[in-house]
């Protein structure tokens, strides 16, 4: 009763399969449309991104999404392993939100996640807090991506 008490952890792939199954069984009847969103950000910006996640989870918010982003860093020295794990998360999303900051501008992972999202055919929307950063990841400029202030009304328009 109550589990095995052994502290076994569910792996990311198992968690994704369980979430897919739950969504399938529960259906979407009577629910607002949810966006499967991957949030791309520099690890140094985790606190600010957690605020965005919290606001999006707020029941009174017009912005409602299923967050498929990586919430804990993968413990691996292998860049290819990390790419595979992130790519799997991206495949389960339809939109990528990129949190722009000075750290994101220099992050090779943020730039890679943008490019990978575009290659998968996903919409990519960049968000920032306060004034738009002068420095952005190269892919933002290269692909002339939409950048909006971190406001739910603006995000709703962009996420359409």
In short:
By secondary structure, the chain is an alpha/beta fold.
From the structure above, extract its key features.
single chain, 160 residues, alpha/beta, Rossmann fold, 5-stranded parallel β-sheet, 7 helices, 5 strands, 43% helix
N-to-C CA distance? 45 Å
Q: What is the CATH domain class?
A: Alpha Beta
CATH level 3 topology: Rossmann fold
Using the 3D structure, state the CATH architecture.
Answer: 3-Layer(aba) Sandwich
Portion of residues in beta strands equals 15-25%
| Low confidence ranges | 1-6
Structural topology:
Layout: H1 12-26, E1 35-40, H2 46-57, E2 65-67, H3 79-91, E3 95-99, H4 102-105, H5 108-119, E4 123-128, H6 138-142, E5 146-149, H7 152-159
Parallel strand pairs: 1-2, 1-3, 3-4, 4-5
What can you see in these coordinates?
This protein is an alpha/beta fold and 160 residues long. It contains 7 helices and 5 strands. It has a single domain, classed as Rossmann fold, CATH 3.40.50.450. It has a 5-stranded parallel β-sheet with strand order 2-1-3-4-5, sandwiched between helices. Strand 4, helix 6 and strand 5 form a beta-alpha-beta unit. The chain is globular, with a radius of gyration of 16 Å.
């Amino acid at each position: 009763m109550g589990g095995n008490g052994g502290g076994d952890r569910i792996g990311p792939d198992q968690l994704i399969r369980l979430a897919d199954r739950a969504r399938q069984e529960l259906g979407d009847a009577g629910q607002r449309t949810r966006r499967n969103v991957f949030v791309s950000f520099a690890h140094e910006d985790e606190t600010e991104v957690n605020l965005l996640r919290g606001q999006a989870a707020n029941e009174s918010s017009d912005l409602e999404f299923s967050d498929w982003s990586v919430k804990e860093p993968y413990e691996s020295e292998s860049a290819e392993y990390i790419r595979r794990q992130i790519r799997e998360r991206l495949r389960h999303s339809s939109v990528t939100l990129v949190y722009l900051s000075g750290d994101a501008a220099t992050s090779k992972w943020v730039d890679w996640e943008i490019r990978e999202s575009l290659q998968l055919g996903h919409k990519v929307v960049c968000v920032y807090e306060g004034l738009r950063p002068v420095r952005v990841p190269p892919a933002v400029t290269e692909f002339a991506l939409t950048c909006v202030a971190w406001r739910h009304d603006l995000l709703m328009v962009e996420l359409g």
